[in-house]
Design goal:
The chain is about 80% helix and about 0% strand. The protein is built from 15 helices and 2 strands. Strand 1 (about 50) and strand 2 form a beta hairpin.
Length: about 450
């Protein structure tokens, strides 16, 4: 097995984030949401669109498509991670999901105004499956490539690479979208569609680096006595049984589920909210998202230093408190300037809560476990399930009340529950530490 804390391996791991965050920036955060809302907007008809013969509010449809894509990932990953663990070939699945996601982004190039929505929205869903599916196998490398004392820093470094990479690719798309005449483009819809091709090239192009340099994985066939197609679910049940015997990890995952419902959903629907509720133009939306990404780098660094000084759980309590207040404040956002203020706060806490959650989970795991893919499959199934709950909750409330603001209030309930559970975890951690000291004495 390759030694941990190898600088070249860690760099290659971080480059995967550099590559795939192009999807997160352009497809979920800026250009695609603005493009989608613009070409499907119809105030006279309540912004209704038709998809396979059924009518939906445009933003509700995109929210449901995202939710369905994450639900598919939740169903597939136990099978795939079981096979990856059994054969030691998790890098193969990292590659498979990356190709799926990047090619689906290329397929969005054919999404033209006035055309049917079925194929473009399927591509939109497949891109999401490729992105979040690949992340499961990417995350599972963390305990394999970094020692416990380095995992916070390495996790934060991965997110920082991702944020910086997404900024660079967004600037490239920004140039095409805002200066189309420079390239002789006269079709108003073409610049956005070209940006989808840029994402494809960036994502798969830089992913070649981790494909080449990351270790393949260690086969663990001897640990399995059941069919690998059903074994993933049995493995998750086995992992769940072990987690139930780990009081701190069990409490952390409960808190993580609830605050992730809010964090992940807000990040996925923020661009739709700005485009639809505040009628922000593309250039303003892209600019503020770039600012968010820059601040996210700063936030990830601050969070890493804070966790080193105050501990992971206390830092998470501070971050989730800010998220709780922020989500409540979204209900009252009425103009672009107020959205800018909210976006600045989002930028500072966005990367920190994600990187720290991942490394906190990794720290709570037993050392030297051979099946990290299975444990991180459980982590990712927890996260993806929270996203499914958040997206369908958000979409349902919007379709019911026709107000995205009401959906934000519904999400705030999840933040509050997550915050309470983190406070309970912090108290339990203190008791466990005190008990350990007494035992040593």
């Amino acid at each position: 097995m390759e030694a941990k804390n190898n600088k070249k391996t860690i760099w290659a791991w971080c480059m995967f984030d550099w590559a795939n965050q192009s999807y997160n920036m352009v497809i979920t955060s800026t250009i695609f949401p603005a493009y989608y809302v613009a070409i499907t907007a119809n105030e006279k008809n309540g912004n209704m669109v038709t998809f396979f013969g059924h009518r939906y509010v445009n933003t509700v449809l995109s929210t449901y498509i995202l939710g369905l894509s994450y639900l598919i990932v939740v169903a597939l990953l136990p099978i795939l991670t079981s096979i990856a663990d059994y054969r030691g070939n998790k890098k193969l699945y990292l590659q498979m999901f990356t190709w799926l996601g990047s090619l689906a982004c290329a397929g969005l190039f054919f999404f033209k105004p006035g055309g049917p929505l079925e194929i473009p929205m399927i591509c939109f869903g497949l891109a999401s499956i490729g992105y979040c599916g690949g992340f499961v196998f990417y995350n599972s490398y963390l305990p394999q490539i970094a020692s416990v004392d380095q995992q916070d820093a390495v996790s934060a470094k991965g997110f920082i690479y991702g944020f910086i990479g997404s900024i660079v690719v967004q600037i490239l798309c920004f140039i095409v979208v805002l200066s189309p005449k420079t390239f002789g483009i006269t079709d108003d819809a073409l610049p956005a569609r070209i940006s989808f091709l840029i994402v494809f090239a960036w994502w798969i192009g830089f992913a070649i680096i981790p494909f080449k340099l990351l270790p393949k994985g260690t086969p663990n066939a001897g640990a399995h006595t059941y069919n690998v197609l059903t074994g993933g679910f049995k493995e998750l049940a086995k992992v769940f049984g072990k987690i139930r015997q780990m009081p701190l990890l069990k409490r952390f995952l409960s808190a993580f589920f609830f605050y992730s419902v809010g964090v992940q959903t807000i990040m996925l629907v923020a661009a739709n909210f700005a485009a639809k509720e505040l009628h922000m133009p593309d250039d303003s939306l892209i600019t503020i998202i770039l600012i968010i990404q820059l601040l996210a780098v700063v936030g990830a660094i601050i969070t890493s230093k804070s966790s080193a000084k105050y501990g992971n759980v206390k830092t998470l309590i501070g971050l989730v408190t800010i998220w709780t207040l922020l989500c409540c404040g979204v209900y009252f956002v009425a103009n672009a300037n107020q959205f800018y203020v909210a976006a600045v706060v989002v930028g500072l806490v966005m990367g920190g809560v994600q990187s720290l959650s991942r490394s906190t989970y990794s720290k709570y795991l037993p050392e030297n476990i051979p099946d990290t893919a299975s444990y991180f499959s459980f982590y990712d199934v927890t996260e993806k399930t929270s996203i499914v709950v958040g997206l369908f909750c958000f979409g349902f409330v919007e379709s019911w009340t026709h107000e995205m603001r009401d959906s934000a209030l519904a999400l705030d309930c999840f933040f509050f529950i997550g915050l309470i559970l983190l406070i309970v975890l912090n108290s339990a951690e203190k008791k466990a530490a005190k008990s350990k000291v007494l035992d040593l004495a």
